[in-house]
Design a protein that fits this description.
The complex is a heterodimer.
Chain A lengths: L2 E10 L8 H10 L12 E5 L11 H4 L3 E3 L5 E3 L4 H6 L10 H4 L3 E3 L1 H6 L11 E3 L36 H9 L7 E5 L8 H5 L5 E4 L5 E3 L9 H5 L5 E4 L4 E4 L4 H5 L5 H5 L5 E9 L3 H5 L7 H8 E2 L4 H9 L4 H8 L2 H8 L4 E2 L10 E4 L3 H9 L7 H10 L2 H10 L4 H24 L4 H7 L3 H13 L2 H4 L64
Parallel strand pairs in A: 1-15
Antiparallel strand pairs in A: 1-12, 2-7, 3-4, 5-6, 8-9, 10-11, 12-13, 14-15
Chain B lengths: L1 H28 L15 H26 L2 H6 L4 H32 L1 H5 L3 H27 L9 H9 L5 H5 L3 H16 L23 E2 L1 H5 L7
Helix pairs in contact in B: 1-9, 2-4, 4-6, 6-9
The chains are: A alpha+beta, B mainly alpha.
The structure holds iron/sulfur cluster (2 copies).
One iron/sulfur cluster binds next to helix 7 of chain A.
Chain lengths: 524, 235
């Protein structure tokens, strides 16, 4: 056993209202710079929908994540190491910027400089890539609330395994179909495909907390990580020619604070905490032959932070005692392992993602009302969970490699919790039948209820600060801004000095995106 | 005569010094700028064809230069390769490599200057580098195709190659070059200029060809304290 600690997240999808606050605050913090206009470390997509970038879940096409070779060994889906080196000159699986969207800005100067006159001045969208007028035809949340579903959402790769009428319903009767929001960040995987595909070894997983980062000084722009990540959460900064990705707000995490997306989440649906796992078990867990066993294999690789043997091994491995204490209070471990209501997104990609989701009950509740059932009656909801193919199989293709029973089990628990707490609060009765149906005790239900419904800041975010004595120079502290180091993601300070790249002017950008300068440009 | 000394005995050393010192400086001062500066996300269709053509052609051309310049004629003759066989192979392979490089670079330059997105990312240094590279390649093609394939032929292994090797023994014989045809002289001069520019351009990515990837473990772990100051960064 080789215990390692991982900072992980759980999101409770029933609570996401799709407000995009998380995306905006993240963007303002991290990707508000030249070359990252199209980059959203946090994006919120509406499901069903094709997502951002378009169809990213279609691994037949993008070759992201891992697969098993004929001998049952893990191999990146994009092929062998030799093949990857041979594709350095042109990566065959790289999405183009049009698969994300063409970023735009406005020529605000025209507004400001317009002379007084009878007409309201008008400004046009300009491409942030070329500076020319452009038409806005796509965006990171183009499909918000099923916008354009009639045209596009039928192409959601997750609908492919469903009965044909599912895609038809999404396409043509979307006002009657189901819908929910899916906020996505980098999964900070235990078996990261991005790190494994990086030819220069610039990407790494931090031993202390499992955060996956790109070393900006060592990245050479081979862009293999972008295609290898099945969640498409590494991006090319086309201004610097280097890869960038979600940092899990490591300077904040090191200081014991939640990530910006979690801190600002309006629905308070994000949970952050530690998970201990056995590093020696990762490869075996990611290589189980049947995709549907991946979830349990990943859970089995997690270590119980209350187990004395684990504690002993963890201390021996150098994990500090206060971290172990935090691991015992971790809401993530509680939701993912103890209550088993959180599930990984697309476990079949075999990267062992560490941002897990509590699947939404709302699509089922909508379906119950749609059939004139009573969606406050657990019986009606249980029936729907058991009988409805469309939202259930869809959720299963997202969260359990197609295993409907797993998602059904979670939704039954959520539904039973609601019924149990409603009965107890309104009538003061104890609904034992609901407990037997889901195998939970009354205490379990109340604990889960507390965590999901009323947990305060300190219970949702249990983040032990990094140990100063372990890190010679701690990023989150000190006098300067840690994001400003040369080549650091903030890049506000000095950066590449006079050299062929010629872009090191050290300017700090204001929150409005700006047109690329004409310095290098097209002239006209 | 002074010009000959300057061009054939001084310029090579100036260029090589700038090449070496420039690389050391760039490596230490600018790890962040040390990248391919890929634009594949911005334009994919032309790059998919042009980039492999250019790079593979360039590898072949480099191999040809090693063979033609560094391997003395006496060695190839000692292993029984006659001048005629050498000529046929060199001109044949050289022409193929040259055509690949020209076609590849043509496609890459076309996308770089026709596609507005890529053009925007092009720096002044890029433009200067592409201009010199294009001149070097054009002159090289003039030698291989113009002189050796279609023209009368010229045995550069008796002159240019001997002079070139002399540079590394610190005994460059300028007279060998002053008698060479003009196109060989110009090719050599432009190549030295190109080498001197190298460390200041995106070409530095060549030295980062990630061969070690083949035997490294898939997942890289690093401790935070180590992550703070990567060992390869000079600062
Ligand atoms: S989700 Fe994050 S850690 Fe996982 S493969 Fe993608 S970029 Fe890497
Ligand atoms: S801020 Fe919270 S509620 Fe709003 S979109 Fe993001 S995750 Fe959903």
């Amino acid at each position: 056993m080789r215990p390692m600690a991982q900072v992980a997240m759980v999101m409770n999808l029933d609570k996401c209202i799709g407000c995009h606050t998380c995306s905006v605050t993240c963007k303002q913090t991290w990707t508000n710079r030249d070359g990252t206009e199209y980059v959203w470390f946090n994006n919120v997509e509406t499901k069903p929908g094709i997502g951002y970038p378009k169809h990213y879940e279609d691994q037949e096409r993008w070759k992201g994540g891992w697969e098993l070779d004929r001998k049952g060994r893990l191999r990146l889906r994009s092929g062998s190491r030799v093949k990857r080196l041979a594709s350095l000159f042109a990566n065959p699986d790289l999405p183009s910027i049009d698969d994300y969207y063409e970023p735009i800005t406005y020529d605000y100067d025209t507004l400001l400089k317009a002379p007084a006159g009878p007409h309201t001045p008008v400004i046009r969208p300009k491409s942030a890539l070329t500076g020319k007028d452009t038409a806005i035809t796509w965006g990171a949340n183009w499909e918000d609330d099923l916008g354009g579903a009639a045209e596009h959402a039928g192409g959601d790769p997750n609908l492919a395994s469903l009965p044909p009428e599912a895609a038809e319903r999404v396409r043509f009767e979307f006002e009657r179909t189901f819908m929910f929001h899916l906020p996505r960040i980098c999964e900070h995987c235990l078996n990261p495909a991005c790190v494994s595909a990086c030819p220069s070894g610039a990407m790494y997983k931090r031993e202390e907390d499992g955060i996956v980062l790109v070393d900006q000084d060592r990245c050479r722009g081979w862009r293999m990580c972008v295609s290898a990540c099945p969640y498409k959460k590494v991006y090319v900064n086309h201004h610097t020619g280097k890869a960038e990705k979600c940092t899990f707000c490591f300077p904040r995490i090191e200081a014991g604070q939640p990530t910006v997306c979690a801190e600002t989440c309006v629905g308070r649906l994000r949970y952050l905490g530690l998970v201990l796992y056995d590093a020696d078990a990762v490869t075996a867990a990611a290589s189980v032959p049947d995709e549907r066993d991946l979830l349990e294999a990943q859970r089995a690789a997690f270590l119980d932070p209350a187990d004395p043997a684990v504690i002993e091994a963890a201390l021996a491995a150098g994990i500090p005692a206060d971290w172990l204490d935090a691991a015992r209070r971790s809401p993530v471990y509680e939701l993912a392992v103890r209550h088993r209501v959180a599930l990984p997104l697309h476990p079949e990609y075999r990267t062992m993602p560490m941002v897990w989701y509590i699947p939404p009950l709302s699509p089922v509740l909508d379906a119950v009302s749609d059939m004139d059932g009573d969606n406050t009656d657990p019986d009606d909801v249980f029936h729907a969970i058991r009988d409805l193919r469309i939202p259930m199989e869809y959720l299963a293709s997202l969260f359990s490699a197609g295993d409907v029973d797993v998602v059904a089990g979670v939704l039954m628990k959520l539904s039973a919790m609601r019924g149990y707490m409603r009965a107890r609060t309104l009538d003061g009765t104890v609904a034992d039948d609901l407990l037997t149906a889901t195998g939970m005790s009354g205490a379990d239900v109340e604990r889960l209820y507390r965590l999901l419904a009323i947990a305060k800041y300190d219970e949702r975010y249990v983040i032990p600060p990094a140990h100063r004595e372990n890190a010679a120079a701690l990023e989150g502290l000190g006098t300067g801004c840690s994001l400003d180091v040369a080549g650091g993601p903030g890049m506000g300070g000095e950066q590449s000095t006079g050299n062929g790249t010629g872009n090191g002017n050290g300017k700090i950008h204001l929150p409005l995106s700006v047109l690329p300068s004409r310095r290098n440009g097209s002239g006209s | 005569m002074t010009a000959d000394i300057a061009l054939w005995a001084v310029l090579p050393y100036v260029a090589l010094t700038v090449f070496v010192v420039g690389h050391v400086w760039r490596w230490r001062a600018d790890q962040f700028g040390w990248t391919t500066r890929t634009t594949q996300v911005l334009e994919n269709r032309w790059l998919r064809l042009g980039s492999p053509l250019f790079h593979l052609g360039a590898f072949a051309a480099i191999a040809g230069h090693v063979l033609g310049l560094l391997v003395p004629k006496s060695w190839t003759e000692a292993v029984g390769v006659s001048e005629h066989v050498y000529h046929v192979v060199a001109v044949g392979a050289g022409t193929v490599a040259g055509v690949m490089v020209v076609a590849g670079l043509g496609l890459l330059l076309a996308r770089r200057f026709v596609n507005g997105r890529v053009r925007r990312t092009t720096t002044r240094m890029d433009k200067a580098m592409f201009a010199v590279l294009a001149v070097v390649i054009a002159l090289g093609m003039a030698e291989t195709v113009g002189v050796n394939l279609l023209g009368p032929g010229y045995d550069y292994r008796e002159t240019v190659a001997v002079w070139f090797r002399g540079i590394f023994y610190f005994q460059p014989d300028a007279s060998l070059m002053s008698g060479a045809p003009m196109v060989y002289q110009l090719h050599a001069i432009s190549a030295w200029v190109f080498l001197a520019m190298w460390p200041f351009t995106r070409l530095v990515h060549v030295w980062s060809a990630p061969i070690a990837y083949l035997w490294r473990p898939y997942v890289v772990y690093r401790r935070r304290s180590a992550a703070r100051v990567p060992e390869t960064a000079g600062r």
